[in-house]
Amino acid sequence: MSFVNKLLASVGIGSAKVDTVLYRDQLIPGEPVEGVVRIKGGHVEQTIDSIYLQLFTTYERKSNDSTITSHAELGSYPLTRPFTLKPDEAKEVPFSFTLPLDTPLTLGKTRVWVQTGLDIKNAVDPSDRDYIAISPTPLVSAFLNAVQSLGFQLHYANCEQASGMFRNRLPFVQEFEFVPVNGVNRQRLDELEVVFLPQADGIKVIMEIDRRSRGLSGFLAEAMDMDETKISLFVTDRDIPNLPQMIQSCISRFS
Known about the structure:
Blueprint: H1 3-10, E1 17-22, E2 26-27, E3 32-40, E4 46-63, E5 66-78, E6 83-85, E7 90-98, E8 112-120, E9 127-134, H2 138-149, E10 152-161, E11 172-180, H3 185-188, E12 189-199, E13 202-211, H4 215-223, E14 228-235, H5 243-253
Parallel strand pairs: 2-9
Antiparallel strand pairs: 1-3, 3-7, 4-5, 4-6, 4-8, 8-9, 10-11, 11-12, 12-13, 13-14
Organism: Paenibacillus faecis
Protein name: Sporulation protein
Pfam families: Spo0M
């Protein structure tokens, strides 16, 4: 390669381009993410140190008195070893990786995407972003449906910075906030918050029951956050037929 071409490559002029094609862009956690990465050489020969995929999502965290939207990496997947890409050369690299079980659902402001990059020595790193719609697993879907069958309506869902009992491998959890709109729970609760922590053989569910305040004592309890109770339960696919009864039993005990 001539000195001029090396210089062009080093500043990214005429560099390689990358485009990822996903075979499916609507998935549930645990399913394979499959597709192909297409690379097109630029005007000069370049050494590609690696092609890699990263899975990202967004979450909100507090900083002083402000709310900041941050990115969290859910997984990283290297695809190739170093190779040389000639001018105008086209390559395709097929891939497949498993969508992590703790991938959040794409509800509200939450977004999930695959980001593709090329590591090119001394050059601009071209990248490509492809969004995925994430739907709930059958067990999570059954739990959400069971909550709604008890007279609750989903009011809010968001990924927020995790702490304490919620902390896992990721810096956030996805919270689902329900409000009672009919039935016996409308008189008992202000809201019900649900967090799912997926396990290999089921799901640990954290529920925060926010009781409706009654009278002066209830007002004082609410002011001191004493009207909130956190409980956890572990559910599997075998529990799906009994989920409404299980959830209502927990609510009745603490409301």
